[in-house]
Amino acid sequence: MSQSLSQNEDTIVALATPNGVGAISVIRVSGPSAIPSVDKVFSGKKKLIDCASHTIHYGRILESGGEAIDDVLISVFSDGRSFTGEDSIEISTHGNPFIAQKIISVLLLQEIRLAEPGEFTKRAYLNGKLDLAQAEAVADVINSRTEVSLRGARNQLDGILSKKIDSLREQLIHTSSLIELELDFAEEDIHFMSLQEIVRNIDEIIEEIEALLKTFSFGKVIRDGVNVALVGPPNAGKSSLLNYFLKEARAIVSEVPGTTRDIIREDLFIDGIMFRLFDTAGIRATEDAVEKEGVLRSRNALKEADIVLFLNDTTVGFSEHLYSEILELNQSDRIVRVANKVDITRPEPDKYDVQISAKTGVGMQSLFEKLKAVALGSSTYTERTAIVSNIRHYDSLNKANEHLKSAKESINKRLTGEFISVDLRNAENDLGEIVGKITSDDILNNIFSKFCIGK
Amino acid sequence: MRSFDLIVVGGGHAGIEAAVSAAKMGCSVGLVSMDKNGMGRMSCNPAIGGSAKGHLVHEVDALGGAMGLIADQSGIQFRTLNKSKGPAVWAGRSQNDREIYSEIASSMVAGTQNLSIIEEMIIDAIEEGKKIVGVRTAHGEEIKCKALVVCSGTFLNGLMHTGMSSTKGGRFGEKPSVGLTDSFVKMGFEAGRLKTGTPPRLHKNSINWQILDEQPGDVPPLPFSLRTPKDKFPYQPQLSCHITYTDQTVHKILEKGFGDSPLFTGKIQGVGPRYCPSIEDKINRFADKERHQLFLEPEGLNSELIYINGFSTSLPVEIQFEALKKIKGLEEVVMVRPGYAVEYDYFPPHQVDLTLETKLIQGLYFAGQINGTSGYEEAAGQGIIAGINAALKIQGRPEFVLTRSEAYIGVLIDDLVDKSTNEPYRMFTSRAEHRLVLRQDNSDQRLMKYGYEFGLIPKEMFDELKQRELVISKAKDIAEKKRIVPNDINPILERKELAIADNADTITKLVRRPELELKDILSVLPEDDEFKLLISDDKVYEQVEINIKYEGYIQRQQELIQKMEKYEKINIPLNFDYLKIKTISTEGREKLGKVKPRTIGQASRISGVTPSDISVLLVYLKS
Ligand SMILES: Nc1nc2c(ncn2[C@@H]2O[C@H](COP(=O)(O)OP(=O)(O)OP(=O)(O)O)[C@@H](O)[C@H]2O)c(=O)[nH]1
Ligand SMILES: [Mg+2]
To answer: Which of A62, B19, B377, B497 sees the fewest Cβ atoms within 10 Å?
Structure first.
C-alpha cells in the first residue's frame, strides 16, 4: 500500500545521472502517481504497487505499442520514504542516452511531467528531508564535476559546516548571555564577565569565522575548477608543456616562433582538482595579422586566468618585459614563473619558482605541487574540514563577521551592553540563517541554566 | 436580573486596569472581587517595577492606566536600576506600602464612574453559541454581560504548601476560587498548573539593623507616572532596604528539610519560574555557590512586617525558622509568617488572541496570571489591553493590538500567544528585540496617542506631548547646525583630560562623543541662547540628548523593524487549514493550528515551526 505524503500534485521525472555515455543511467520519478504511472509501462513479475518500499525489481519498460525499450532495474520507495519525501521510483537502464531519453518520453505520456532544474531537491527540502544547507549541498553534488568537489559536497551533506556553524552560534549565544545577564539581572549577586573577557570571546569567534571565510576561495576551486593560462614568449615551450600534461600531441610544436595562434583549451586533473589549461600564442610584437590576433587572444586569456604559468626559455633568458606586463593584469601570487628547457641550459638563479623541461619531464612533480598550492591557497583540506563553497553561506558569514566587528567597536566606544548586544544578535541571526535556525529564547534559556538568578 | 456591558473577575493588578479603562471608555462595568477593600493587593513582594517591569509600568501609564499613579502615591522608596548603562535599560523600581497601595487602588476603583463592585465569587461562566452571555455567582445569582475579562490571579484552585502540609487558598488567609476552571474546561479550554512562592515575613523589631548594609532610595526620587504632580511627589516618607546573605551553615540547615520539601518530593505538580527560584532550588541547583544575597524590604510605613526577598521557600516551618536565625542580622528574628508555595490553574496562553480575547469563546478575555504570567506589571499590561479591547468590541469598534516594535506590552502578548508558556512568564529587556527604541523615557511618544484616542488620557496632556515633540525636533535641528568654537569647548575637554579641539564642531557632533554630555555643552552657552532655552524642560533635554547620542543605533534598530515589518504585514486567513498542507512538519502543523497566527511574522515566532515550514506557508499564501 503506498500513500503520498506530499501535497505536490504533480509527479515529475528526470535523468538523475549526468547526460552522456556511462555504465548506467538512472531515471528518477517522484510524486503522488509515481508508482502507478510507472506500473503502466513496466512489465515485471509483480505490480510495483504491490512491492514493498526499498526493494529492487527486474523487468522491462514497454513502448506504447508494447515493444520493450530496455531491460531495467526498478527501485521502489513508497510511503514517502524517499529522498524527496514523496513516493518515488528509480529506473536504472543501460547507460545509452538514447535509451534513457526514450524511457522518459514514454513516461511523459503518463501523468508525469519533466522536472524543473533542482525540483527534486526543492521537494526534499519542502518535505523536511533536508535543511537549507543540506539542500544547497545536494545541488552542489549534482553540479560538482570533480572528485574533490564531490568529497567537499558530501562532507557538507554530512553536516560538517552545519555543525561548525552550530557551535559558533552556541559560543555567540553564551557571550550574549553574559551581556544580557548584566542588563536584566544587575541587582543579582553574581560575577559579571569583564569586558576584556567578552572581547576575547568575540575575538575567538571572529577568528573562526575568518578561517571559514578563507575556505571559500578553496570551496570555489573544488567546485568550479581553475583557469590556467600558459603564457610566455614564442618558442618558450608552452605547447610542449601542454602536450606533456595531456600525454598526447594535442598542440602543434615546432621550433618556429609563433606556431600557436588560436587558444587551445584542455582539462587536466591533478589530485581531483580540475585545471582548465589554455595554451596561448607566444606574446611578441608582430606584423602578421593572424599572429596579431593570436597575441590579442593571449592577452585576454591572461585577464581571465586564475593562475598564470609564465614560461621562459632558459636558453633565451627571463623576459622581464613580458613579466611586468603580466603583473599589471594578475596578482603576483597567482603567477608561476617557470624556467623551461633546463635540460639545455641552467636558468639564472632567483628568477623562477619552478624549473622544468617539457622535453624530459624534469621538475614536473614540483610544478604539479606548485599548481595545487596556488589553486588551494594556504588552506589544508581534509575530509573533516568545514568548507564554505556556497555564496549564500559566504555572504552570511561575512555579515556575521562585520556585526561582530561593530560589536567590538561599540565596546571600544565604551558603550554598554544593550548596544553591544544589537550586533551580537544580528551576528547570531546571520549564522542562524545558514543553518535555518531563528533566534528564540536561546539566550534566556542559557542564562537560566548557567546562572543562579532570582532574589 | 443584574446586567453589565462588561464583567471583570478579580480586583488585582490586571482586573483594576481592565475595569477602570473599560468604564472610562463608557461601558458599564461590574468588577467582581471577594473583598471590595482589597483591590490591588501585592501578594508577593511589596515592590513595583524593576528591569523591564518598570518599562511595562510606564507603558500602562502612557495608555492611561492606573498602576503608575498608585505606585507613585504609595511608594516608600524609588530607585532607577541600571543607571550606569544606557537609557534603554534604565528601569524604575519602587518599594511600596502594601496597605496604602491597596487603599489607593480601592478608592480609585470606587471613584470610577460606570463601575460597580460586586463582592462575590464567580463559579461559572455562561456562553451561548460560543459567545459569552453572563456569569453565575456562588450564591446562584446570574449576572448578564456582553463581555467577560477573567483576571483571577493565583486563585483558581489555589493550593498553598508549607512543608508536607497544604491548605486551599489563593493567598495567605484568603479562600481559593473554585468552579471557574471547570467551567472553562467544559467549554473546551486546556488548563495547566503553575507554581509560585513567597518568602517568610519577619518582625521589624527583631532584626539587628545596625550590622546590615543599607540600600537607600535615589535622591531625588523619580515617579513612574507622567500624571503625578511634581509638587506632591513623593507622597510618602522614604525608607531604605537592607542587604544580608545566606552562608554554608544556613544552606546545611535548609538541606535537612529537603526530604519534607513539597517541591523535591513531587507533591507540587505546578511548574515554577526559573528566574525566581526558591532558596531550596538555588541551593540544590547551584551547590557550589557559597552564599545568596537577600534583601530585607519594608512592607510599609507602619507595618511591622519585613519581606525577605530572595528567601522564597516552601520548606517545613521549623526548618525555615532555624535557617533564618543563622543569617547575619537575623539572630534574634521573629518569624511572623512562614514562606509558602502556591499552586494555581492557568490556561496556556496560545488559547488567547493578540487582543487577549479567547479564540474559543467570543467576548471572553483572559488577563494576568491566568495566562501564565507572573508579576504585577505583566498583569497590569494585559489588564489594560483586555479592558480596552472588551470595550471596543462591545462598542463595535476596531480592535487594539500593540506590536513588538511599539511596546513591551506588545512583546509580552505576542510571546504569550505565539510561544505559550509552561512556566510563569516574566518580562526581561532581552525579550524585546527592539530594546533600544522601547524605552521608559519615550513611552509617552510611543503610546499616549492610543490612550488619548480611547479617552483614557486627557486632551491637555496629549497636546502637551505634541507641543514637546515639536520642541524636541526643533532643538535637534539647531544642534545639527550650531557650532561651538574651540575657545568655548576646550576648557571642558581639558578638564576631562581629552585632546583639545582645533575646529568648531556642531552640538550634535560633540554630544555624540562618549565622554561628553549635553549639559557640558549647555554650560558654555549664554543664558539667553535659543537652544538652551528650548531644552530647558527636563523631558525635552532628555529626549534631545538620547536622540542625538544614540541616533546611529536607534536608526539601525528602525531599519531592522522595517525589514521585519514585511513579514508582519503578510496576513494569514484566520480559518486557514494547516492540516491540509502535508509539506509542513507535523509539529509545525499542530502548533500553527493551535496558535492560529495572524501574520507570517507571528507564525515564524511559534516554537516548533521551522523556517522551511514558513517558506512552505509563504508559497501557499501566494498561490
Ligand atoms: N630541449 C628542449 N627543447 C624544448 C623544450 N620544450 C620545448 N622545446 C622545443 O622548443 C621549441 C618550441 O616549442 P613550442 O612548444 O612550440 O613552443 P611554444 O611556446 O608553444 O611556441 P609558440 O607557440 O610559437 O609561441 C620546439 O622545438 C620544442 O621541441 C625543453 O624542455 N627542452
Ligand atoms: Mg605553441
So the answer is: B497
A255 lines ligand 1 (CB under 6 A): yes
pLDDT in tens, B492-502: 999 999 888 89
Q: What's the one-letter identity of residue B232?
A: K
Amino acid code (one letter) for A441: D
CB A283 within 8 Å of CB A294: no
Residue A103's pLDDT band, with cuts at 50, 70 and 90, is confident
Same domain, yes or no, for A367 and A297? yes
Torsion of CA B98, B101, B104, B110, to 10 degrees: -80
pLDDT at residue B300, as a whole number: 95
What are A's interface residues with B at a Cβ cutoff of 8 A? 5-8, 125-128, 131-132, 180, 183-189, 413-419, 421-422, 425-426, 436-438, 440-441, 443-444, 448, 452-455
Residue A7, pLDDT score: 46
The CATH number covering residue A414 comes to: 1.20.120.430
Kindly state whether residue A3 falls inside one of the protein's structural domains: no
Beta bridge partners of A59: A44, A72
Examine residue A59 and state whether it is found in any structural domain, yes or no.
yes
pLDDT band at B202 (very low <50, low <70, confident <90, very high): very high
Query: Is A300 in the same domain as A249?
Result: yes
C-alpha A217/C-alpha A58 separation (Å) is: 45
Q: Count Cβ atoms within 10 A of the Cβ of residue A132 and give its class: 0-12 exposed, 13-18 middle, 19 or more buried.
A: buried
* Closest to A107 (Cα-Cα) out of A49, A40, A32: A40
Please, what sign has the CA dihedral across residues A94, A100, A106, A109?
positive
Out of A396-405, B69-78, B532-541, the most confident range is B69-78
Q: Are residues A67 and A110 in the same domain?
A: yes
- Identify whether the C-beta of residue B375 lies closer than 8 Å to the C-beta of residue B47: no
Nine-digit cell at B112? 470610577
Q: Is residue A424 part of a domain?
A: yes
Mapping DSSP onto H, E and C, the string for B58-103 reads HHHHHCCCCHHHHHHHHEEEEEEECCCCCHHHCEEEEEECHHHHHH
- Whether residue A128 and residue B435 make contact (CB cut-off 8 A), yes or no, is no
Residue to mutate (ligand 1; options A230, A239, A240; most atoms within 8 A of CB): A240
Single-letter code of the amino acid located at B559: E
Q: Mean pLDDT, chain B, as a whole number? A: 93
Task: Give the nearest partner residue to B428 out of A5, A440, A444, using CB atoms.
Answer: A444
How far is residue B368's CA from residue B19's CA, in Å, rounded to a whole number?
Answer: 13
Report the C-alpha gap between B439 and B444 in whole angstroms: 10
Written as nine digits, the cell of A250 is 594535442
DSSP sequence for B472-487: HHHHHHHHHH-EE-HH
Is A305 within 8 Å of A297 (Cβ atoms)? Answer: no
Among residues A82, A165, A88, A75, the alpha carbon closest in space to that of A129 is found at A82
- Sort out which chain A residues have CB atoms less than 8 A from B616's CB and list them: 126
Residues from chain A contacting residue B50 (CB–CB below 8 Å): 187
Dmax (CA) for chain B in angstroms is 84
* Number of domains within chain A: 3
* CB contact at 8 A, A126 and B612: yes
Q: B443-453 vs B459-481: helix axis angle to the nearest 10?
A: 150
Which residue range(s) make up the domain with A399? 140-215+385-436
The domain that holds A94 is classified in CATH as 3.30.1360.120
Per-residue model confidence (pLDDT) at position B192: 95
The reply to whether omega before B220 is within 30° of 0 (cis) is: yes
Looking at the fold, whether A350 and A391 belong to one and the same domain comes out as no
Query: Is the CB of A240 inside a 6 Å radius of any atom of ligand 1?
Result: yes
* Rounded-to-10 torsion of CA B203, B205, B206, B207: 100
Nearest-atom index, ligand 1, CA of A258: 24
Q: What percent of chain A has pLDDT over 70?
A: 81
